[in-house]
Specification:
The structure is a single chain. The chain has about 160 residues and is mainly β. It has a single domain, classed as Sandwich (Jelly Rolls), CATH 2.60.120. It contains one helix and eleven strands. The strands form three sheets. Strands 1-11-4-8-7 form a five-stranded antiparallel β-sheet, with no helix packed on it. The protein has a four-stranded antiparallel β-sheet with strand order 3-9-5-6, with no helix packed on it.
Length: about 160
């Protein structure tokens, strides 16, 4: 009886785990050496688009320490198509701390490290199949950001 209950729990947990990640086509994270992101450190994420008939949501994922000096983070991105042509580019701002209280936003999982996920591009349509590249730079008023643990990119199929 205990074995059946244990097996049922494992099956339910596995189903929930798989369903939470349904629709994800790309997920990559860059960890920073010494929790430091220099302005000349361009992060490049290459991913494959196989279906041009649907739209995608692109998310930034990042982790910072509670000692991060600023309330927010500015990044510049540049999206290149399979031919190396610029598809889009922009500047994005992400608030990492509450403006009034200074309390960290995000989820705390490892002591003073906070995890965030920000929607960067919603319902993005890609015109061509193939490998796209998204280049991202920090765009703060300092040449080096300290207390920045990692920065990543996640792409999911948009919900209809």
């Amino acid at each position: 009886m205990k074995d059946r209950l244990k097996m049922l729990c494992i099956l339910i947990f596995s189903f929930l785990l798989v369903s939470c990640e349904q629709g994800k086509i790309f997920d990559s994270i860059n960890d920073f050496n010494d929790s430091r992101w220099d302005e000349d450190n361009t992060l490049s994420f290459s991913f494959e688009i196989e279906d041009t008939n649907i739209t995608y949501d692109i998310f930034y994922t990042l982790r910072n320490k509670s000692d991060y000096r600023y309330q927010n983070l500015y990044v510049k991105y540049q999206l290149l198509d399979p031919d190396g042509e610029i598809v889009s580019y922009d500047l994005h701002e992400m608030d990492l701390f509450q403006p009034k209280t200074g309390k960290p936003k995000g989820k705390s999982g490892f002591g003073s490290i906070y995890s965030h996920e920000f929607l960067a591009l919603k319902d993005k349509n890609f015109d061509k199949t193939g490998e796209y590249t998204m280049n991202i730079n920090q765009y703060m008023r300092t040449s080096s950001l300290t207390e920045m643990v990692s920065f990543g990119l996640k792409i999911k199929k948009s919900n209809p």
